[in-house]
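Researcher: Last one for today. Full complex below.
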Amino acid sequence: MAEDRPLRADARRNRALLLQVAKTAFASDGLSVPLDEIARRAGVGPGTLYRHFPTKEALFEAVVHERLRQLVDDARALRSADDAGAALLGFIDRLVAEAAAKRDLVDALAGADIDITTTVAATAADLRSEIGHLLVRAQRCNTIRSDIGIADLMAIVSGILSAVQPRFNDRADPERVLAVLHDGLQATPRDRGGRDQRE
Amino acid sequence: MAEDRPLRADARRNRALLLQVAKTAFASDGLSVPLDEIARRAGVGPGTLYRHFPTKEALFEAVVHERLRQLVDDARALRSADDAGAALLGFIDRLVAEAAAKRDLVDALAGADIDITTTVAATAADLRSEIGHLLVRAQRCNTIRSDIGIADLMAIVSGILSAVQPRFNDRADPERVLAVLHDGLQATPRDRGGRDQRE
Amino acid sequence: MAEDRPLRADARRNRALLLQVAKTAFASDGLSVPLDEIARRAGVGPGTLYRHFPTKEALFEAVVHERLRQLVDDARALRSADDAGAALLGFIDRLVAEAAAKRDLVDALAGADIDITTTVAATAADLRSEIGHLLVRAQRCNTIRSDIGIADLMAIVSGILSAVQPRFNDRADPERVLAVLHDGLQATPRDRGGRDQRE
Amino acid sequence: MAEDRPLRADARRNRALLLQVAKTAFASDGLSVPLDEIARRAGVGPGTLYRHFPTKEALFEAVVHERLRQLVDDARALRSADDAGAALLGFIDRLVAEAAAKRDLVDALAGADIDITTTVAATAADLRSEIGHLLVRAQRCNTIRSDIGIADLMAIVSGILSAVQPRFNDRADPERVLAVLHDGLQATPRDRGGRDQRE
DNA sequence: GATGAATGAGCATTCATTCAT
DNA sequence: AATGAATGAATGCTCATTCAT
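Model: Here's the assembly. Have a good evening.
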């Protein structure tokens, strides 16, 4: 069961610190932030950064990966929720609220110019799968419109997430944006009576 | 007193060519494309590029500016449309369709890491204003929900635009995404009867 | 016949200067000399060096290539020599004399740790071919022993060249080393009477 | 007053292991092999390597030193050989055969870019001295030409050694190379009758 | 003694910008 | 005006060496 090396205490601390610093740095300055800068902010030499993350891409991936893993855990916890529709919308609401406050999530979901490798892709697929579960259940109980798939939902949500980012958005109100999203996603209009409501 | 002379014919041609090439290059490779590469593709020396656009930022702004001006013109043409709601939604549909096909628009609207300066901001404000006109008219004739403002709409639309980009989106169907957006934006549910529809 | 771009006068001057400086630098300090150092010695920025030679390997290859080309020319001039044996030995003598004075030749022939690419390999093959001509002719007129091939000769000569390098050699006398080489190469002993001379 | 304590058993084992690994590593990859790599191959931490060999240069020197000591021992064993000429030539033949098979010897003798310090120099001088003995004796019994000195011989031999290295030599036949060397070194031609043999 | 994490100077390479031709 | 060569600061990465555990 060789646990991938237990890492010394100081090394683990540094690794976590670097991840944290990198997350913040990427979030505020984008991918263009120099690695030396991240190392400096973490108070370590560039070589230490290199020891933990052998390329810039690896560091970015680690940041994204960790974020995705949190989301997967959160989504998984909702599997057993009574009201699937509420669970899904609540999950999305929380994502949006967080994205409106900070700035890392979007890069995590959108991917920038760096190739996301298999490892991260697997976790991303996990997230998609978990949200897919919620979606299907919510569609079954007629809360969410049944004509969209998980790919559509992921695209819409990640779009909304970037829309509410503080960087690009001075005045939009996340609450109102969410209201539009909720209404667009809900099952009622088309599922109850088709598109005739516009008459 | 540089009196903004009308430029020699070849100079004007070069400027237009560079803008075109830069637009394509930024669209396909992002902002990281080297200026030398753009100059090469346009068949001119980097010095020539520099003569027309003194910094990379200036070039990018010019590209964005031109794109925005086109959009402003398009939106303005809809001022006199009979059906303001249809005009607005149609305009958005076209934006989405284009974004789903190419890749420049989002960078133009989202702005990446480069600061958009006053010049471009003015045109961006024009666009916002034109779309705002359409929004207000569509809200007055009860086609678009009245609880959102232009800032909300711009945010949502630019989010959706990035969502349907070919780069980040393999499987989402622009049509279904638009269906959600339409339903989310439409006036009916809440304006006709408030939120009681879910009962 | 697009002549590979005629290059501007200053560019050609810089290219030649860089080659010259690099040759000297590699010769005296080996491949480990930093490119910045070469650029500095040439009085140009590292970017200029990069413009002419996009990688360190390319620069090294260019240096080697040029040297080899000179040798090929020199060897080719001997094709029509009356006395092939004297021509060959004279050519080798000159190589040894130069190697004993400077230090680039050996790296040129020995190749260090950098992979020599096709271009240089072709010129190296040319050199081998030219020397091979001289060898065969010298063997035909019974001046050089007939039991060795061009590969053997090249190995021996390049070995001798490194042997007389000032770097590794404080006290060996190039003249005496050459005497050994001459006697070892000459046809007489074995070709006249085989190995019975040792009796 | 570090009194050169006899070292703990495991320390001695580690030292020997590191030397062995370093020899192989330098031989196959040259001096550019990272110390971390050597430590890894030996299964120890870089700190351990450092304890035994305080600098890279020290490690390299130790490797060379050991190799030279072996050679000195081998050469010394030939002091009492009956036929000094055969002993010398046989010794050289063995060196060449080994160099043609592996790749460490030449670096050991040639020295690359690292300065060989006094310690190694002393052993190298020992080797030179031992071979010098053989040379003088062989010259006295008229087997080896008398016009060359030990410096000449060392240079020639080390040159030949690099010539037959597998790295630089695809097709040269060590046997034929040795034949040339033997004929070049033998006493006969000039010592018996001067240079008149060419008539 | 051993370990392996940390250090940080140093390197090859890139590219926005400037300027001689 | 155009050209394209030159500039040089900046960046990602390496690795010999040091030091805390």
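Chains C and B do not touch (no CB pair under 8 Å). Residues 8-10, 34-36, 46-47, 50, 54-56 of chain C lie near DNA strand E (CB under 10 Å from a C1').
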